[in-house]
Design goal:
By secondary structure, the protein is of the alpha/beta class. The chain has 2 domains: 272 residues, Aldehyde Dehydrogenase, Chain A, domain 1 (3-Layer(aba) Sandwich); 189 residues, Aldehyde Dehydrogenase, Chain A, domain 2. Helices cover 38% and strands 21% of the residues. The protein is built from 15 helices and 22 strands. It has a 7-stranded mixed beta sheet, with helices on both faces. A 6-stranded mixed beta sheet has the order 9-8-7-10-11-21, sandwiched between helices. Strands 5-6-22 form a 3-stranded antiparallel beta sheet, with no helix packed on it. Strand 18, helix 14 and strand 19 form a beta-alpha-beta unit. Helix 1 packs parallel to helix 7, helix 2 runs antiparallel to helix 5 and helix 3 crosses helix 4. The longest helix is centred in the N-terminal third of the chain and has 21 residues. The radius of gyration is 23 Å and the shape is globular. The protein starts with 11 loop residues before the first strand and ends with a strand.
Length: 485
């Protein structure tokens, strides 16, 4: 166990230096599983954000990073990955302590951060070599050049790994970064500052501040920012897009979800219960990709629902540091209150509670709520349409494959989806008709080499793979007269 005294981070990381906030202050970091103060952390004020952006601007305009070679940047990313690996115990602990993530999830956060750095270290040469194009009237070299100063704003549910969703490709592309963490979970993100300094990143290439929503808007509005990458709620994403649109700053937005899992009528109920049900409640339901709408064939409703109910009811809830725990706490009292309001809405709408829906009787501290499953849900109900962001899953019946596709697509969101079937070709045919950014067949897969992002209200742009790297680049064409044969 890590001593609490070693968790606090009471300075912001700006220009390669740790410094006391200029006009910010300190906040207490609260454990969502015990409600106790586990550390203090620095929060930024407007002057701190302005200083961070200025440092990133200077580092891009005058520093060596944007003009360094692909090999040099790759080596730095590899050193950062080594730094993550060397701090495995600390970062795994922070996943449980500040997020409330269970052991396996906290480890996945840290392993994901490390592997993202190594992946983009290997991919970044694609921006180093221009493509030679023979045009209609000219010859040209098409180059991918770094976009500039990037503001990367991350949520509280997986702050370490999601930070690297943007930071790793931005650094690989040659950009400089201001990374903004949420006030709920600042600690692991600040550790990235220690890692960056140790890895030898030039001053100002990576700057890290923690700030609330109001102060964060000053970052989005700063005229020295060239690119914004945001992960979080759809409401905030719309606000950021509107502000960025005023100055035509490009944005990548990874927003909310209400993803559907379509269980086809040839699926095995026990396999669904064992394989699909856990994918509905990852990170205590606080994951935008969770399959929170489960669509089952009406004629086999009872069979599938009974198997899933037994699985959900058996999930251990409690201490995230206990390896046997599957569902930990929600991030805060406010988030638990939000989930409990939706439980009340479900009762008003006439949904039938199968299991859960309450605070665990044996846990008098922490922001816990039992894993919750409903049947008798129509897709028009609020609990089927709105993102709850807690361990709440609804079952919706359908009559045919066409009906299932129509229900899955009848959503404001389009982030993820799953199709479960004994027939992979049939599942593929259903998956390709779903209006969502990614669909898994008989599972859910997050692959750094495959583009990730949403349709509709789930976002703009793509992360991961070459698309994620090119999102931090501008395309430049250098022309010259084409020689005629």
């Amino acid at each position: 166990m890590i001593a609490a005294a070693g968790l606090s981070r009471e300075a912001v990381f700006i220009g390669g230096q740790w410094q006391a906030p200029i006009d910010g202050g300190l906040i207490d970091v609260i454990s969502p599983s015990t409600e106790a103060v586990i550390a203090t952390a620095a929060v930024a004020g407007p002057a701190d954000v302005e200083a961070a952006v200025a440092a990133a601007r200077w580092a891009f305009d005058h520093g060596p990073w944007p003009t360094s070679s692909a090999h040099e940047r790759a080596a730095a990313l590899e050193r950062m990955a080594d730094g993550v690996q060397a701090r495995a115990e600390l970062l795994d602990h922070l996943g449980g302590a500040e997020v409330g993530a269970v052991v396996a999830m906290a480890r996945a956060f840290r392993e994901g951060a490390e592997s993202l750095l190594r992946y983009y270290a290997g991919l970044n040469p694609i921006v180093a070599v221009g493509e030679q194009v023979t045009g209609l009237v000219s010859a040209a070299e098409v180059r991918h050049v770094p976009v500039g100063v990037c503001a990367i704003i991350v949520p509280w549910n997986a702050p370490l790994s999601i930070a690297l969703f943007g930071v790793a490709p931005a650094l690989a592309a040659g950009c400089t970064v201001v990374l903004k963490s949420p006030t709920e979970t600042p600690l692991a993100v600040y550790v990235l500052g220690e890692i960056a300094a140790e890895a030898g990143l030039p001053p100002g290439v990576l700057n890290i501040v923690c700030a609330d929503r109001e102060i964060s808007e000053t970052l989005v509005r700063n005229p020295l920012v060239d690119k914004i990458s945001f992960t979080g709620s759809t409401a905030v994403g719309r606000r950021i897009a509107a502000i960025a649109g005023e100055s035509l700053v490009p944005v990548t937005l990874e927003l909310g979800g209400k993803s559907a899992a379509v269980i086809l009528d040839d699926a095995d109920a026990e396999q669904v219960a064992a394989g699909l049900t856990p994918l509905t409640m990852l990170n205590s339901g606080q994951a935008c990709t969770n399959a929170t709408r489960v669509l089952v064939p009406r004629r086999r409703h009872r069979e599938f629902v009974d198997a899933m109910t037994a699985a959900v009811a058996a999930y251990p809830v409690g201490d995230p540091f206990d390896p046997r725990t599957f569902v930990g706490p929600l991030i805060s009292a406010r988030q638990r209150d939000r989930v409990e309001r939706y439980v009340a809405v479900a009762a008003e709408e006439g949904a039938r509670l199968l299991t859960g829906g309450r605070r665990p009787a044996d846990l008098d501290r922490g922001f816990f709520i039992e894993p919750t499953l409903y049947e008798g849900v129509d897709n028009s109900m609020r609990i089927a349409r709105e993102e709850i962001f807690g361990p709440v899953v609804v079952v919706v019946d359908y009559d045919s494959d066409d009906d299932a596709v129509a229900i899955a697509n009848d959503s404001d969101y389009g982030l993820s989806g799953i199709v479960w079937s004994a027939d992979v070709e049939r599942a593929h045919a259903v998956a390709t008709r779903m209006r969502t950014g990614q669909v898994g067949i008989n599972g859910y897969f997050l692959d750094w080499a495959v583009p990730f992002g949403g349709m509709k209200a789930s976002g703009l742009g793509r992360e991961f793979g070459s698309a994620g790297l090119l999102a931090f680049c501008e395309t430049q064409a250098v022309h010259w007269a084409r020689r005629e044969p």
